[in-house]
Amino acid sequence: MISSLTNDKIKYVEKLKKKASFRREESCFVVEGIRMIREVPEKLRRQLYVTEAAREQYPELDGWCEAVETVTEAVLRKLSDTETPQGMLAVVAMPGRQSGSAGQSAQADGTPLYLVLDGLQDPGNVGTLIRTAEAVGATEVLISRNSADPYSPKVVRSTMGTIFRVPVRICEDLPGAIRDLQKNGVVVYGTHLSGEEFYAADLTGPIAFLIGNEGNGLTEEVAATADRLLRIPMEGQVESLNAAVSGSVVAYEAYRQRHVQNSNI
Predict the structure, then answer these.
(1) What's the CA angle centered on 98, arms 96 and 102, to 5 degrees?
(2) Which residues have a Cβ under 8 Å from the Cβ of 181 and sit 6 or more positions away?
(3) Please, which residues bridge with residue 243 across strands?
(4) Distance CA 175, CA 181 (A)
(5) Per-residue DSSP letters for 21-82?
(6) What is the biggest distance separating any 2 CA atoms in the chain, rounded to whole angstroms?
(7) Judging by DSSP bridges, how do beta strands 113-118 and 207-212 pair with one another?
(8) pLDDT at 260
(9) What is the pTM of this model?
(10) Which of 18, 163, 206, 241 has its CB surrounded by the most CB atoms within 10 Å?
(11) End-to-end CA distance of the chain, in Å?
(12) CA-wise closest residue to 191 among 98, 92, 134, 120
């Protein structure tokens, strides 16, 4: 049983939790809680840290991976990123390619739909949009390097397991990645207050939605890549919607146009 907070394995987990650069270097991240741990595909499982009480409650954890370590409650509390730890956390490998250009995925089966996140800082917004991407059957989520890290503990929790099923691409050069999409026939729509009302747009073809920072919206450089700017109509004195809400609204309009036949909704 690991009881020391200075144990090398424990320090390794802490570093993965705190440093995005180290997560990228190791191509690993940390998940916590029985629900998330059950979501991890077997091929991505690397290490599991569990208390005796949790091990007794969930005996299936003994065979979860080859490296299962029992730790004290104090050590688990130190490692945990939540106020009420469930007695377990795991180190898992990042699924698939996580960086580079985006054009290679544009020929996926079906009609491509991309969510492109430009400088989103709130982990909850990033995680919610990754969940939305799965719900609408999106091809991929592209994320600028200056956005919240999709493999940080808070983002991972808010994805509710979809981080393992939705392709996520962190882009060093987001405008370049967008142009790669366009070269592959994807029409790029920017969500912008000065755009046209988005309900009039035909969203049934290969498309990408650009979703901007919570406070400032799309950067000028990214907005300039858009083929067309669209806005969500709003009444009252509301100036804008939460980034995750905006992204979900436009993504679901695309879903409606593609899947709901002869609908007046």
Answers:
(1) 105
(2) 102, 103, 106, 114, 188, 208
(3) none
(4) 10
(5) HHHHHHTEEEEESHHHHHHS-GGGEEEEEE-HHHHHH-GGGGGSSS-EEEB-HHHHHHH-SS
(6) 63
(7) parallel
(8) 79
(9) 0.89
(10) 163
(11) 58
(12) 120
Q: Which whole-number Å values give the CA distances from 196 to 52, 178, 249, in the listed order?
A: 58, 20, 15
Match 């593609």 to its residue by tokens.
Answer: 258
Single-letter residue type at 183? K
Q: Say how many CA atoms lie within 13 Å of 19 toward its Cβ.
A: 12
With H, G, I as helix, E, B as strand and everything else as coil, classify residue 260. Answer: coil
- Strands of 39-186 (E only): list them: 45-50, 68-70, 88-93, 113-118, 140-144, 168-171
> Per the structure block, which two tokens stand in for 87?
């007695």
Q: What is the pLDDT of residue 237?
A: 74
Burial of 151 (0-12, 13-18, 19+ CB in 10 A): buried
Residue 239, helix vs strand vs coil = coil
Q: Is 160 left (phi over 0), alpha (psi -120 to 50) or beta?
A: left
**88-93 and 187-197 as β-strands: parallel, antiparallel, unpaired?**
unpaired
Q: What b/e readout covers 102-135, taking b as 16+ CB neighbours within 10 angstroms?
A: bbebbeeeeebbbbbbbbbebbbbbbbbbbbbbe
Query: What phi, psi does 113 have (nearest 5°)?
Result: -140, 120
pLDDT bin (cut points 50, 70, 90) of residue 261 is low
What are 127's two structure tokens?
A: 């995680």
Measured CA to CA, the distance from residue 94 to residue 28 in angstroms comes to 5
pLDDT (tens digit, 9 = 90+) per residue, 33-87? 999 999 999 999 999 999 999 999 999 999 999 999 999 999 999 899 887 888 9
